[in-house]
Design goal:
mainly alpha; 0% strand
Length: 207
């Protein structure tokens, strides 16, 4: 893939109400990222991913960027939830996992190594739907809105690195960085979606 936009399913024409919704989602996601938006299990999962990337990468910065991208993607899904909740009929119960409060507080009975590894197939299915242009299977809002918002938060993360890195990287290396940031942003979105119970069936293969 040659760009972050391609990594999440293509360029979306932002116009009218789509722009307003995207602005709102991105603003809310950024605000959430400054708080403590993750459940305890998701927080531990993010920490473990960060540690794994630090051990895998020759320098530490990419692991930090991956961790931030995962958080922003996670918060974007939560921003979707908030927007849906604000527009829902009275009585809507939201998209919290059944054990959200226990996860936040940390249950004493929960094993120390408990995590979200069991959600890996669901996370992979959500991410694949986004990348394959089938976002409508997994988004809470109109696919155009969610894809445009993902595209924007990925671009923002890349812009943070551009000033210090772009001249140091050739086009191939910069493209790899785009894909790296996009992958972790989508992964964060998929993490929250799977955590709240979304488990799409694998996309049907073309005959």
């Amino acid at each position: 893939m040659s760009s972050a936009r391609a990594a999440v399913g293509g360029v979306v024409d932002e116009a009218g109400e789509v722009v307003e919704a995207v602005d709102d989602l991105c603003f809310t996601a950024r605000a959430l990222a400054q708080t403590h938006p993750m459940t305890e299990a998701a927080h531990r999962y993010r920490q473990r991913c960060h540690q794994t990337e630090r051990a895998r990468q020759p320098v530490t910065e990419p692991a930090d960027w991956a961790s931030t991208a995962l958080l922003v993607g996670y918060c974007l899904r939560r921003a979707e939830e908030q927007r849906v909740e604000s527009e829902a009929e009275p009585g809507w119960t939201g998209a919290e996992p059944a054990d959200a409060e226990e996860q936040r507080a940390g249950s004493e009975a929960e094993p120390a190594d408990a995590g979200l590894d069991h959600l890996a197939p669901a996370m992979a299915a959500v991410a694949e739907s986004l990348r394959a242009g089938e976002a409508g299977r997994v988004t809470l809002l109109a696919p155009a809105v969610t894809i445009a918002a993902l595209d924007r938060v990925i671009a923002t993360e890349l812009d943070k690195r551009r000033e210090h890195l772009r001249e140091q990287l050739d086009d191939r290396q910069w493209s790899e960085l785009e894909d790296y940031i996009a992958w972790w942003s989508v992964h964060g979105y998929a993490l929250r979606a799977a955590e709240t119970g979304l488990s799409p069936a694998p996309a049907a293969e073309s005959p």
